[in-house]
Specification:
Elements lengths: L1 H5 L14 E3 L1 H7 L3 E6 L10 H15 L4 E7 L3 H13 L2 E7 L12 H9 L2 E5 L3 H18 L4 E3 L8 H17 L5 E6 L3 H12 L5 E6 L6 H16 L11 E3 L12 H14 L8 H13 L8 E6 L10 H8 L15
Parallel strand pairs: 2-10, 3-4, 3-6, 4-5, 7-8, 7-10, 8-9
Antiparallel strand pairs: 1-2
Length: 349
């Protein structure tokens, strides 16, 4: 039923699918807890890979179906979302306009690194705004859209697309197929919750397929009514798919206990989680999303939140290009030295 409904929606193929479902046997043994699998959506193949490629297949499909010729979106200075949006636009021959949040208006450091370097190489038009991010980003987006329309262009706001949840509804279908082939019953899907696009799709797919999987989002940034935002996206997607799914805030499980110092701020727990997964499985996580989510999962396992006989899928959402701008605190913490900073200077003074 879900596969049939998904096939009706506009879509462009951007990702290398299916991505691997990998059993992390060494990590499972090290933690002595539930059986851990890693869904390798860092290997989706567009740009440096990541979860947003899966999401963008349907967002871009809708944009093209509606005749859009320029995509407008925004996020943080080192945003992997922006990397994948710009990469998708380059592949599809669409123009793109990006607004980015940084420490101050017009921020332009001497050295480029990580995702910002990729944005520069990709040749994206970028407007950079400082604090307060929410207010200034909203104004920047509105101005960009007005300017583009005045030029006779047809902008599409990717971050507010009603198709935001569809990619991971399809992802759940893929994941269940892989789990069935392995003879594994999935009890939990754990991932990093940022914008909520990924979690909304995971919930939508899980409920549409009656899986009884509990979807746990580990929040990586503070936000107002994140549960409500995810529920709204789930219900929008259910309407598009014409499936009998409706959720409220109480149906959305977001853990807010591992925010640490705030968005993009690292600490020793995050760095040690990155180190542990690298040393046990040869897989690299990033400091902003997957590292923070893994630190939370490790803590919950050690705290006995899961039964040893349960099966957890950790969704690797990519973003590893962000490792390199964080070289200073990573090196210092792993050498048991005091880091020069934990709050990244491109976001905070």
């Amino acid at each position: 039923m879900l596969g049939f409904q998904l096939a009706k929606l506009p879509r462009v193929r951007l990702a290398h699918l299916p991505t691997p479902l990998y059993e992390a046997k060494n990590l499972t043994k090290e933690l002595g807890g539930p059986r851990i699998f890693v869904k390798r959506d860092d290997l989706t193949g567009l740009g440096f890979g990541g979860n947003k490629t899966r999401i963008l297949e349907f967002i871009m499909g809708d944009a093209l179906a509606k005749g859009a010729d320029v995509i407008v979106t925004g996020a943080g200075w080192q945003s992997n979302w922006c990397t994948q949006v710009i990469s998708a636009c380059r592949r599809l021959g669409l123009d793109v306009a990006i607004y980015k949040q940084a420490v101050e208006d017009g921020y332009d450091p001497k050295d480029y690194d990580g995702n910002h370097l990729l944005h520069f190489i990709l040749g994206a038009e970028m407007v950079v705004v400082g604090h307060p991010w929410r207010e200034k980003a909203a104004k920047a987006k509105e101005k960009l859209i007005e300017e583009l329309r005045s030029k006779g262009m047809k902008p599409y706001d990717a971050g507010e697309s009603p198709y935001r949840s569809i990619g991971y509804a399809n992802g759940v279908l893929e994941l269940l197929t892989q789990a069935n082939e392995l003879g594994v019953k999935i009890d939990y899907i754990v991932h990093a919750n940022g914008s909520g696009m990924t979690q909304s799709g995971l919930i939508l797919g899980s409920k549409a397929l009656n899986t009884n999987i509990e979807v746990i989002g580990i929040s990586i940034s503070p936000g107002v009514d994140k549960e409500g935002r995810v529920a709204k996206m789930v219900n929008e997607g259910a309407k598009l798919l014409d499936v009998d799914v409706s959720v409220g805030e109480k149906d959305v499980n977001i853990i807010h206990d591992y925010l640490g110092g705030g968005y993009a701020v690292v600490d020793e727990d995050v760095i040690r989680a990155i180190e542990l997964v690298a040393k046990t499985e040869g897989i690299f996580l990033d400091p902003v999303y997957t590292g923070k989510a893994m630190a939370g999962l490790i803590d919950m396992i050690r705290d006995g939140k899961f039964d040893k006989n349960e099966n957890i899928v950790f969704l690797h959402t990519g973003g590893t290009a962000a490792l390199f701008p964080y070289r200073e605190p990573i090196k210092a913490i792993l050498k048991a030295e005091k880091p020069a900073w934990l709050k990244p200077p491109w976001y905070y003074k």
